[in-house]
Amino acid sequence: MDKNKFEKDVFLDIDDVEMSDRGVVRGNVSPAVIKRLPRYFRYLRELIRQGKSRISSGELAEIMSVTASQIRQDLNCFGGFGQQGYGYNVNYLYAKICDILGVGCGYRAVIIGAGNLGMALARNPMFEKRGVDVVAMFDVSPNIVGKTVSGIQVYDMKAFPAYCDENHIDIAVLTLPKEAAVEAAKQVISAGIEGIWNFTGKEIDTGDGPVVVENVHIGDSLMTLCYELCRRDREQS
User: Fold this and answer.
1) What's residue 82's pLDDT?
2) Phi, psi of 133 (to 5 degrees)
């Protein structure tokens, strides 16, 4: 990824923020803290858009609907980044969060499954905003293979091993049918790809191996919403 483009996309001025001064990641950071980091990324990004250069933990807590203590505890897992009596430099903190989340690492991804969901993800700007470059899509349908989606070529799945041999890929996004998920995951692992973002609905577990899997269940989020609506309706009745 072009560094100048990355800096422009994330609203950073390289003269003001030193990216190489990394925070210290303290051992055994809880999954709950890690899950909150993308929220810091989003809210700090918006503050930079608004021209905000400095913020206290209390102000940030109010915006994010958490406690100031929670914010300080979270950030202390990675070195703190604040200054007593001053708060946080927004650009600096944003750069640190980007650094921790690997936004500037230039990760390259492929999407396996060029159906409706795969195409929707390919068109979504979230990858670029988070420093991930989607370089190819793969499918088995002759009606889809050869097409281009938002500038991304769709290749035959048969070409997947050779493509990965010739191109370094960090992440495979699985958007194919559930029944094909396990076989696709095996091909991904065989190709040496170490990150799987799994939208198939089939839980994939690679154990303690080198491959990191994030299983995404969109239906779970919908059911959580339905639960809250049902609970509210019952309380009001």
Assistant:
1) 74
2) -105, 110
